[in-house]
């Protein structure tokens, strides 16, 4: 998934609504303009949506930046 975003702050928290059926160690990777900024292992949610937060992600300010979310595992 790739999003075009405007970055106004150099530090942020990323919040995601996720659902997993099985405990496979699902992992997401976040890239901003092709540079990895974070990875998050998603906890098993037993089939219910939960909010997962990636804290203190460092960003580079600018407009029309590409934020890419990749499913690495799971």
Give me the secondary-structure category: mainly beta
User: Quick one: biggest sheet?
Assistant: 4 strands, antiparallel
Quick one: overall form?
Answer: elongated
Physical arrangement of strands within the biggest beta sheet: 1-6-3-4
Structure explained in plain terms:
This protein is 0% helix and 65% strand. With 74 residues, it is mainly beta. It is elongated, with a radius of gyration of 13 Å.
Task: Please render the helix and strand layout as text.
Layout: E1 2-7, E2 11-18, E3 27-32, E4 35-41, E5 50-58, E6 62-73
Antiparallel strand pairs: 1-6, 2-5, 3-4, 3-6
Entry summary:
By secondary structure, this protein is mainly beta. It has strands spanning 2-7, 11-18, 27-32, 35-41, 50-58, 62-73.
Throw out a few tags for this protein.
mainly beta; four-stranded antiparallel sheet; 74 residues
